[in-house]
Design goal:
Helix content: 55-70%
Structural class: mainly alpha
Distance between the termini: 42 Å
Oligomer: single chain
Number of helices: 4
């Protein structure tokens, strides 16, 4: 039972880790990060809507404040992006390399947890050999 709990926990953590890496990769590789695309930033931002399944849990005020902040930050972000080279391909490689290292570490932690459970598991007494009764 303890092994199942350990591996279910590891699977959940790896799943969350994967979602975070997937999100980071999607955000970092968004085509709108190119300096030329930021001229259309306000138009794109107005059309941005959360997914249908997520919308009930996000307050509209929070979304409006986030859009307002992004509109205010748009010129600074555009100036910053025009000064930096386009590293989107390299950033995706870095994200998935970090994901691989993290997933490997979590797998090793699962193996170590199972080993600890096995190590501290009470020893079962060896069954005595059956002697035939005369």
């Amino acid at each position: 039972m303890a092994h199942a709990v350990i591996w279910i926990f590891v699977a959940l953590v790896v799943g969350i880790w994967t979602l975070m890496a997937w999100t980071a990769d999607s955000v970092l590789n968004w085509p709108g990060w190119s300096a030329n695309a930021l001229a259309e930033w306000p138009l794109w931002l107005d059309s941005l809507r959360p997914p249908v399944w997520l919308a009930p849990w996000l307050p509209q005020e929070w979304l409006d404040e986030s859009r307002a902040w992004l509109l205010d930050a748009g010129p600074e972000i555009q100036a910053w992006l025009q000064q930096t080279p386009d590293l989107r391909g390299l950033l995706g490689f870095i994200v998935w390399t970090v994901w691989l290292i993290g997933a490997g570490m979590m797998l090793l932690m699962g193996i170590a947890g199972s080993a600890l459970v096995k190590l501290f598991q009470p020893k079962k007494a060896a069954a005595a050999p059956a002697h035939p009764q005369p």
